[in-house]
From TrEMBL:
Divalent metal cations. Prefers magnesium or manganese. The keyword Transmembrane helix does not apply. GO terms for cellular component: chloroplast. (S)-malate binds at residues 491, 535. Pfam families: malic, Malic_M. Keywords: Metal-binding, Oxidoreductase. Residues 171-341 form the Malic enzyme N-terminal domain. GO terms for molecular function: malate dehydrogenase (decarboxylating) (NADP+) activity; metal ion binding; NAD binding. The lineage of its organism: Eukaryota, Viridiplantae, Streptophyta, Embryophyta, Tracheophyta. InterPro entries: Aminoacid_DH-like_N_sf, Malic_enzyme_CS, Malic_N_dom, Malic_N_dom_sf, Malic_NAD-bd, Malic_OxRdtase, NAD(P)-bd_dom_sf. GO terms for biological process: malate metabolic process. SUPFAM superfamilies: Aminoacid dehydrogenase-like, N-terminal domain (SSF53223), NAD(P)-binding Rossmann-fold domains (SSF51735). This is Malic enzyme. The active site is at residues 202, 254.
Length: 635
């Protein structure tokens, strides 16, 4: 199971929860399924056969009850997601299945069940069998045509928030169509302008959705845990129906991409909002604000709530629940990762996910500049979660490859924060996570002066401040290096340290460039450069799948290194010819499967995997466990 925790713009903390797979008898549990007599069953023979196979009986009120301690065992090669007690995921696309919920879904109820609704794709036979006559127009259309129609509709919306709301509405009415849309239009996930798919469900549109969440809120899409639930968190977790898990705020994008890009089943995902109040006066006075109307909790009160949550998660879902922290303030992010990293399966995408994807880009960039990472000097603008996380993983990779102490590997990595270059004379006044980067040097205030003094070969921006890589800064990098590596990673586009066009133009076409926000290809002196996007979506879906399929119990830094190397391996000669340091997104599911296999292999190597025996072909195992959004035929 995996959680994604996120401090969004509304001051709510959000988590995404992915339940662990139930692949072994020790993970199974007794389950009880009721077929309520109020549901009309036209396929009684199929139902009886299913009930008979599971060992059923009828209770006094007429409901058919199924009780068993040994649900059907899944295929040993398929280990993603939760136990497939309904046989749905074991079925091939041409095999009919029974659309079970708490009851056999029929008629009006079936059309409002997002897990089984197919809209106009219900066949004539299915409409007869499930009492849908008259509830749908007479036309039957394919799922492919539904995808085409939905994309046509999305492209006609002028306001990004409208597209976001349309996609969220689709997710809540037709889950499989929602994910088929995402999967089949994956190359539109990184658009030239924010009018296509990924920004609709992820960033930056989701930032506006978070800001206006109270105004656009219609239906709950996850668990809400606030200080009012303190002492009752385990009870709250048990309130969530296992087969109906969707998304909220920023985590809705994360969880959608876990499924679309990583193949983790949507029923294995749960977003959780932890609300500890807000200090935002505008929100406190907003009549539409749906969060806790009190000042933000800190210190012991905050720590106690988080500890109760972490304890309850492990108690309710077990040792293999992956808890993904998202958008925490720097001090909380590092403290929580350090505190629970040895007791829980935790992952911080801002610190670890960002670091892993950037490291992959740097490994890819070595093809252009030669040598190893140890031959380069790195300068960061920004020393928060992202900057220090990337710096640490680079140092770790250098330490492993060169077999030198980590402290030695850090010496060629320098960071600049809002007060200037981080140097040893500032050590007493800086936050603890910046101290490893306080090297001996005279203080320097301006970035351009730091570039001239440090002479970096790699310049990385994680400052969140736009246009800080000025023309003088870029030109200085180009004077110092034949092929300067410039990574402008801040989001959104307005906060990018420089644009792709600026980087290529000011370096006279010599820069190796990638960004956090998408930029269009750039023409310079007759050559087309395709800027890469260092998007975490390259890493976290496959990383999460690797943890789930191996039953890993702890995240280890070596797994992040393995994910980086797996991503860099996907670069081909044709990509290098265009100046790319990240592979295109069109093969993202194949990339995610490769990353999952490498992460799982490292988990087995480190003795942290519990799914035994280890599959012989991990990549094929990853591919076979991926969720398919294609419609099933119903009996």
């Amino acid at each position: 199971m995996a959680f994604s925790i996120d401090h969004s713009l509304s001051d709510l903390t959000k988590l995404s929860l992915l339940p662990k797979p139930l692949g072994h008898a020790s993970d199974m549990f007794p389950f009880r399924l009721s077929v309520f007599p109020r549901v009309h069953l036209s396929h009684r023979t199929s139902t009886s056969r299913l009930l008979s196979s599971l060992g059923s009986k009828v209770d006094p009120n007429g409901s058919v009850l199924i009780e068993t301690t040994t649900p059907p065992s899944p295929s040993p090669d398929v280990t993603g997601g939760v136990q497939d007690v309904y046989g749905e995921d074991a079925a091939t696309e041409d095999m009919p299945i029974t659309p079970w919920s708490l009851s056999v879904a029929s008629g009006y109820t079936l059309l409002r069940d997002p897990h089984h609704n197919k809209g106009l794709a219900f066949s004539q036979r299915e409409r007869d069998a499930h009492y849908l006559r008259g509830l749908l127009p007479p036309t039957v259309i394919s799922q492919d045509l539904q995808v085409k129609k939905m994309m046509h509709t999305l492209r006609h919306y002028q306001v990004p928030l409208q597209r976001y709301m349309a996609m969220m509405d689709l997710q809540e009415t037709n889950e499989r169509l929602f994910y088929k849309l995402l999967i089949e239009h994956v190359e539109e996930l990184l658009p030239v302008v924010y009018t296509q798919l990924l920004p609709v469900v992820y960033t930056p549109t989701v930032g506006e959705a978070c800001q206006k969440y109270g105004s656009i809120f219609l239906r709950p899409q996850g668990l809400f845990i606030s200080l009012k639930e303190k002492g009752k968190i385990l009870e709250v977790l048990r309130n969530w129906p296992e087969k109906n898990i969707q998304g909220m705020g920023i985590p809705v994008g994360k969880l959608s991409l876990y499924t679309a890009l990583g193949g983790v089943r949507p029923s294995a995902c749960l977003p959780v909002t932890i609300d500890v109040g807000t200090n935002n006066e505008k929100l406190l006075n907003d009549e539409f604000y749906i969060g806790l109307r009190q000042r933000r909790a800190t210190g012991e009160e905050y720590s106690e709530l988080m500890h109760e949550f972490m304890t309850a998660v492990k108690q309710n879902y077990g040792e293999k629940v992956v808890i993904q922290f998202e958008d925490f303030a720097n001090h909380n992010a590092f403290d929580l990762l350090a505190k629970y990293g040895t007791t829980h399966l935790v992952f911080n995408d801002d610190i670890q996910g960002t670091a892993s994807v950037v490291l992959a880009g740097l490994i890819g960039a070595l093809r252009f500049v030669g040598g190893s990472l140890a031959n380069h000097r790195f300068l960061f603008l920004g020393a928060g979660e992202a900057g220090t996380g990337i710096a640490e993983l680079i140092a770790l990779e250098i330490s492993k490859k060169c077999q030198i102490p980590l402290e030695e590997a850090r010496k060629n990595i320098w960071l600049v924060d809002s007060k200037g270059l981080i140097v040893s004379s500032r050590k007493e006044s800086i936050q603890h996570f910046k101290k490893p980067w306080a090297h001996d040097h005279k203080p320097i205030k301006e970035l351009v002066d730091a570039v001239k003094a440090i002479k970096p070969t790699v310049l990385i921006g994680t400052s969140g401040v736009g246009q800080t890589f000025t023309q003088e800064v870029v030109e200085t990098m180009a004077e110092l290096n034949e092929k300067p590596i410039i990574l402008s990673l801040s989001n959104p586009t307005s906060q990018s340290e420089c644009t792709a066009e600026q980087a290529y133009t000011w370096s006279k076409g010599r820069a190796i460039f990638a960004s956090g926000s998408p930029f269009a290809p750039v023409e310079y002196e007759g050559k087309t450069f395709v800027p890469g996007q260092a998007n975490n979506a390259y890493i976290f879906p496959g990383f999460g799948l690797g943890l789930i399929m191996s039953g890993t119990i702890r995240v280890h830094d070596d797994m992040l290194l393995a994910a980086s190397e797996a991503l860099a391996e996907q670069l081909k000669e044709e990509h290098y010819e265009k100046g790319m340091i990240f592979p295109p997104f069109r093969n993202i599911r194949k990339i995610s499967a490769r990353i999952a296999a490498k992460v799982a292999a490292k988990a087995y190597e480190l003795g942290l995997a519990t799914r035994l025996p280890q599959p012989k072909e991990l990549e094929k195992c990853a591919e076979s466990s991926m969720y398919s959004p294609s419609y099933h035929s119903y009996r």
